[in-house]
Amino acid sequence: MHTSLPIKSLLVFDAAMQTNSFSLAAEQLFVTPGAVGQQIRKLEEWLGVTLFHRQVRQVEATLEARAYWARIQPALADILSASQSLKDSQSNAVWVSMPPGFAAKWFSRHMADFVTRHPDIELHISASSQLADFSRDRLDLAIRCFDGMDDALQASLLYDDQASAYCRPGYVQSKHLAGPDDIRHATLLHNTLHPYWALWLKQFTTLDATQLQAISGIHFDQTLLAIEAAKQGQGVVLTSPLLVEEDIREGKLEPLFAECSLPLEKGFYVVHPRQWTLRPAVALFRDWLLERMAG
Fold first, then answer.
1. pLDDT in tens, 258-292
2. Are 187 and 216 in contact (CB under 8 A)?
3. DSSP string, 157-219
4. How does residue 1 score in pLDDT terms, banded at 50, 70 and 90?
5. For the chain, which domains are there?
6. Could you say which DSSP state residue 254 is in?
7. The model's pTM
8. Cα–Cα distance measured from residue 105 to residue 101, given in angstroms and rounded to the nearest whole number
9. Is the CB of residue 38 less than 8 Å from the CB of residue 49?
10. Given this model, what pLDDT does residue 138 score?
């Protein structure tokens, strides 16, 4: 009499292959290492194949196990994805990834409006400069600063970006910055994620290579740090107007050479995989973003 395939054992086997450890698989599944070993033995008995060589305090997958896992892992991933999608379809939770600067400087000031309008929707916000992976991360939408060109994504423009110069009030007078060429007397606050100073200097100044090389500068790997340094009077930051609206309104920053704004091919977009049908809660959040930005 043929027994049924032990489905639970397949999930345990998948975890053991991913972690290459019965102990780590046990932590991932919230069971004991002994329970993992029991499920692996059950699968081995059903298959009639040894899947792991047991050694002192470690296990090693056999060639048969690696080949078997390569065949079944995509199907297990599909089952997990389909199950999670069905579960999420009944949920009012929305998972969104966005750049830290956007999260801190724009979203944090506007999110109360969405919560007030839709108190039943639960937001989960991830602020990271790392590119979110829709195939791996638990994610419904992402805010990205790019050119909007990606065949795999449905991208809706939120804000057509530009790079403008800003400094602390009084900095212009202290450095005698009467025109763009006087920027050589300032300290440039560079953002390695958005390195636009070279383009700005080329387009708006007549400084030669020697003069450009002599300009002092500080490099930051986060936009927020560069903006904060400008607010502290440490130099001039070149950034998106969207990210300094509140600082300008509160008098912490002021535009420098407002007529010298650098157009960019990038903008802020809200994106999701093109083939996805958005759940009602997710669609409401996306539409709110578009409406709020347009207003």
1. 999 999 999 999 999 999 989 999 999 999 999 99
2. yes
3. EEEEEEEEEEE-TTHHHHHT--SGGGGGGSEEEEETTS--HHHHHHHH----HHHHHTSEEEE
4. very low
5. 7-88 (1.10.10.10), 93-157+267-294 (3.40.190.10), 161-265 (3.40.190.10)
6. E
7. 0.71
8. 6
9. no
10. 85
